Amino acid sequence: MPTRRDALKLAALxxxxxxxxxxxxxxxxxxxxxxxxxxxxxxxxxDRVEVVTLVGPDGDVxxxxxxxxxxxxxxxxRAIFVNGLGLEGWIARLIAVSGGxxxxxxxxxxVKARDVxxxxxxxxxxxxxxxxxxIANAGIYVGNIRDALRAADPDGSGxxxxxxxxxxxxxxxxxxxxxxAIAKIPADRRKIITTHGSFGYFGDAYGMEFIAPEGLSTDxxxxxxxxxxxxxxxxxxxxxxxxxxxxxDPRLIERIAEESGAKIGGTLYSDALSPPNGPAATYxxxxxxxxxxxVDALAP
Length: 300
What we know:
Layout: H1 4-16, H2 19-26, E1 28-34, H3 35-45, E2 49-55, H4 68-76, E3 79-82, H5 91-98, E4 104-106, E5 115-117, E6 125-127, H6 135-152, H7 157-182, E7 191-193, H8 200-206, E8 209-211, H9 224-237, E9 241-245, H10 251-260, E10 263-268, H11 283-298
Parallel strand pairs: 1-2, 1-3, 3-4, 7-8, 9-10
Antiparallel strand pairs: 5-6
Helix pairs in contact: 3-6, 4-5, 6-7, 7-11, 9-10
């Protein structure tokens, strides 16, 4: 039977061990607009940060319809992380209706944007928002995330510095890995078809050309004329493979493959991660998967 001394020891230990609930309550609550950005914030924030991601795995950030729960999450956030470059056309209104006053951090700040013709108005140039498809650009995102978390939670500055430095080292290693993988693909086979124009930064960084009947956004279907032009180009230039994107209905690519004779090279992850049990559950896993899928389809 416990003695009075045992009871006093237990009381003392209980007083000294409220750590778990205190940590849970003191975590910095932040919002990220889509899963890729959410993962980068988690990598830098670590255990000090609770990240709410609005557009989850396999979700299409271009055409997302916000919910009341999203507005509530923004209202409770200490920081809001967005990609910028025109990716989240719905975010400004959502922030306004949320009533929140958290700072909005544009993670792509400092990236040299690719300017491309607007699909709806080819005479107008717009920034390509898919900057994370270059690993070097992802490093810029990480620096902006680190600085924003330091400002939101000064007591955690050392943790954020350490996490960011560690993750940047992993990105450097990933960059070398992806470049070595793409080097296995002959130059005359580095031209492929995807659903929409989300891989321009990847192409510029690693020496590939991506052709898409869609524009930069998935909110409008390509015309029959655009699709026909792509099919003719595949046949004329002997483009070996077309790729499905995880966020998009595969039927367009399946039709192009059938009519052109090109093979379907697999699925690429463009604007969203896979679910946790999938092959692209983190940014690093996504870039590694995409590089391997390209090599498997295109290398001799």
